[in-house]
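Appendix B, example 12.
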Amino acid sequence: MSKQYYLVSQLPSVENLDSRQLPITEQYYRDLCGRFLDAKSVKIIQNLSLEPPKKEGKTGSAFLDKWNEKERCLRFALAQVRALKMKKEAEMLPAGCTADIIQAARTAVGMDSPLAAEEFLNEYRMETLNSLAPLDSFSVDAVIAYGLKLMLAQRMKKFDVETGKASYHKIYDEILEESK
């Protein structure tokens, strides 16, 4: 347990990083955890992903299971709202989908800018992580929550307006070429 205190004390904050460089990389985080946590916890962290499995399953962490359930529900809600917007059939939402998840999906899908929608969803996900985070900031679940926050921050740093426009135009042009 004393190793976990040392681990957590070495993890720099990933909150409010609007324009700054991330303080550590995802690989450094995983390597650091590998030096200080037990084998079971390291395995959980090595398999950590922002994309939960489509089907429910136990990860070995109650916190991560709850996060995966919320994220899975959000993804299903987004798919359903998008499908309904296009007047297509949609899958049923999982039982764990709450009104706030459905509302977040509706808000994101209703936005004009895909970048604004992604930023909104990222903020929603951070708020969800903060609401689920354990009170004991030195627990393995707190280290897992940190990893997810780092991954979210890293993902948002990849978004660039000019690159996005270029990619959009490339895809749009390819679609036009295929339809000829």
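Residues 62-85 form the longest helix (24 residues). Residues 31 and 46 are 9 Å apart (CA to CA).
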